[in-house]
Amino acid sequence: MTDIIRYLTHPQVKIDAAIPVPLWGLSAVGLARADALGNARWLSDTTQIVSSGERKAIETAEIIAGKLDIAVEVRELMHENDRSATGFLPPDEFEAVADQFFAQPSVSIRGWERAIDAQSRIVREVEQVLARDRAGDVLFVGHGAVGTLLFCHYAGGVAIDRAHDQPDGGGHCFAFVKHARRVLHPWRPMEELV
């Protein structure tokens, strides 16, 4: 049987401009989506769950892990692209800066981590886990921007482009075959995976 690697983005969060973004937790909708996902048939062969160290990712991973009776491994360097230079940005401004982040991957946009650096970091973290070569499927739980950068890498090294970003709302997943590193499917809502 072929081992499948999945990268899942956390679902909806409680947005609070007074709290640093890495400390945001899941909203009621996000919690309900993560809880429902824990019973999904497509997770049945999962033997490892690896999460970013950000609260929203850990909450998502722990809910799923609790249903599967698997421990969560937290890897701090799987965090979202570093946007601490700007902190919280109103939605319209955030989207404009995110567009620039993807359009100019070798440039630090307003002090954000460069996309090429974030991509190297997330690929390195995933490859370190996969180098263990343990049997079974692996579920990585993380974030939209670095997830998109990871997808670009495994989708045949396509250029970094926001065209490959997950749809709005979070809670999307893409998958690839472990040994061939071949993408099986692009972003899909987690509820639509079978």
Summarize the structure.
The chain is an alpha/beta fold. 33% of the residues lie in helices and 19% in strands.
Task: Indicate the low-confidence ranges by residue numbers.
Answer: none
Count helical runs: 5
Strand order of the largest sheet: 3-2-4-1-5-6
Beta content: 15-25%
Task: State the major sheet.
Answer: 6 strands, mixed
Got a strand count? 6
Q: How far is the N terminus from the C terminus?
A: 17 Å
Class per helix and strand makeup: alpha/beta
The helical percent reads: 25-40%
Overall average pLDDT:
96
What value does the Rg take, in angstroms?
A: 16 Å
Order of helices and strands: EHEHEHHEHEE
The backbone outline, from C-alpha atoms, is globular
Notes on the structure:
The protein is α/β, with parallel strands linked by helices. Helices cover 33% and strands 19% of the residues. The protein has helices at residues 28-37, 55-68, 91-103, 115-130, 144-154; strands at residues 4-9, 46-52, 72-75, 137-142, 172-177, 183-189. The chain has a 6-stranded mixed sheet with strand order 3-2-4-1-5-6, sandwiched between helices. Helix 1 runs parallel beside helix 2 (55-68) and helix 4 (115-130) packs across helix 5 (144-154). The longest helix has 16 residues, at 115-130. The radius of gyration is 16 Å and the shape is globular.
